[in-house]
Design goal:
72 residues, binds zinc ion, HSP_DnaJ_Cys-rich_dom_sf, Molecular chaperone DnaJ
């Protein structure tokens, strides 16, 4: 590894998507509100814990606090 110094990131404008204040499509379920889960051996659809089935990203939402399925 040749030391070429530290690359500095130029402060650039954030992408337009970052500037949008409106609702954003939930990434994990891609806006469908459902996720496929393989829990239990059979793949089946569950309500997306990230958006709670709305398909829209919920700011500061903790999916781990309300998982779609809890292991018994
Ligand atoms: Zn979702």
């Amino acid at each position: 590894m040749a030391g070429q110094g530290t690359r500095r990131r130029t402060a650039s404008k954030a992408p337009a998507q970052e500037e949008q204040a409106g609702p954003r499509t939930c990434g994990p379920c891609r806006g469908t509100g459902k996720l496929l889960s393989g829990a239990g051996g059979t793949q089946h659809a569950v309500v997306c814990p990230w958006c709670e089935g709305t398909g829209t990203e919920i700011p500061d939402h903790d999916a781990q606090a309300n998982p779609a399925e809890r292991p018994d």
